[in-house]
Amino acid sequence: MMPDDLRESPNMPRASRVGLVLFGVYVLLYAGFITLVLVRPDLVAQRPFGGVNVAIASGLGLIVAAIVLAAAFLFAPSDRL
After folding, report:
1. Quick one: which of 3, 8, 55, 56 could link to 44 by a disulfide (CB 3.0–4.6 Å)?
2. Buried b (16+ CB within 10 A) or exposed e, 56-74
3. Where are the alpha helices (DSSP H) in the chain?
4. pLDDT tens digit string along 22-63?
5. Is 9 left (phi over 0), alpha (psi -120 to 50) or beta?
6. Which pLDDT value is given to residue 71?
7. For residue 52, what are the β-bridge partners?
């Protein structure tokens, strides 16, 4: 159940669409990561970052991407949503 103030907000449908688009972007990033792990396990096992393998670096990149996308949604001006 949604609170009444959110249900009556005129920006809620547009904000929902923006949220779904950002979620779709993250799903594509994650799907690319999983595809890379499945298709090229030899590539993700390499350690070009001072002992940290590509899989760990990519996983941390996904976490950073999630934070950036969340911040983009949170701090976007409501008139642009």
Report:
1. 55
2. eeeeeeeeeeeeebeeeee
3. 4-7, 12-39, 41-44, 54-75
4. 999 999 999 999 999 999 999 999 998 788 999 999 999 999
5. beta
6. 93
7. 49
Long-range contacts made by residues 33-42, C-beta under 8 angstroms, separation at least 24? 33/58, 33/59, 33/62
23: Cα separation from own chain's centroid: 6
Tell me the pLDDT tens digit for each residue of 54-71.
999 999 999 999 999 999
Q: What is the DSSP letter of 76?
A: S
Q: Rounded to an integer, what distance in angstroms lies between the CA atom of residue 75 and that of residue 78?
A: 8
* Closest by Cα among 69, 4, 59 to 32: 59
On whether the CB atoms of residues 15 and 23 are closer than 8 A, the answer is no
For residue 20 the two structure tokens come to 């779904």
